[in-house]
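BUG: 3D viewer hangs when loading the predicted structure for this chain

Environment: internal workstation, default settings.
Expected: structure renders.
Actual: progress bar stalls at 90%.

Input used:
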Amino acid sequence: MSAATYQYVDLPDASVVTTRALLTARENIADTVDARAMMCIHGGAGFGKTLAVNTCLSELEPHEDVRKITFRARPTARAVRYELFTALDLPGQPPRHPSEFDRLLKAALAERPRIFLVDEAQWLKGEAFEYFRYLWDDPSTQLAIIFVGGEGCHTVLRREPMLSSRIFIWQHFTRLTPSEVLQTIPLFHPIWAAADPGDITFADQHAAHGNFRNWARLTAHVRLALARTGRPRVDQEVLRWAFSRLGSPA
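C-alpha cells produced before the viewer hung:
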C-alpha cells in the first residue's frame, strides 16, 4: 500500500512512513479490536490520522471485517442508519420504521465480529454518536468502533458522558516536530532522500509546518519543478517556486 492511496494529491513513489504516531495507532487499534471496544483518534486536519488508521486496519484484513463510514455533513440518527445499511451491504430496501431498522442492523452486527471506521467524525452530533453507542452496547453485537476526526470530534464526545465513559482509548495526533520532520520526510519520498537537511527545514518552516498533507502537496509541486527544470535535486530556488504555488511566503 502506498501513501498515494490516501493523499489528496496523486503522489507516485510516496511511502507510508512508520512514525511514532503510526506505531502508537497500530498498538491502540489492535488493543481496541481485541477488546471489541471503541476508541477516538483526533487531531488537526492533515496530521495523518486517516492515513495511519487505514494503514493499520489494512494489516488486520482479511481476518477482520472492516467497514468504513465517512460523513460530510451533520447526520441524524436516521441518516446514520442508512449509512450503516449501505456499509454492511445489506440486501433489499431499508426498513421504513426505526424499530424495524434497529432490529435489522443488530441482527447483521450479531452475525460476526465487525470493525467500523467512522471517518470525519467531527461532523457527528450527540444524537449520531449516541446511535453508535446504542448498537455497540447491545450484548449480541460484536463491534469495535474507531472514531477518527478533528478536534470537534473530541469535544462532542467529551460532552456525552454515556459515550465518553465507554471510549477505551483516546489518541491525539499532532504536527511533526522539527526533529521528526528531518527523520520522516527523507523516507516519505525519494526527492527528499538526497535533499540537504537545511532545505528540508526551510521547506517545513515556510510551507509544510509539520503537516503531512502540506508535505504531500509541496512534494507534488517540487516533483513538477524538478521534472521541468531538469535539476537533479531540491534547492531553495525550486522550493520558492513551489511555495509561490501554495501561497506560502518564501
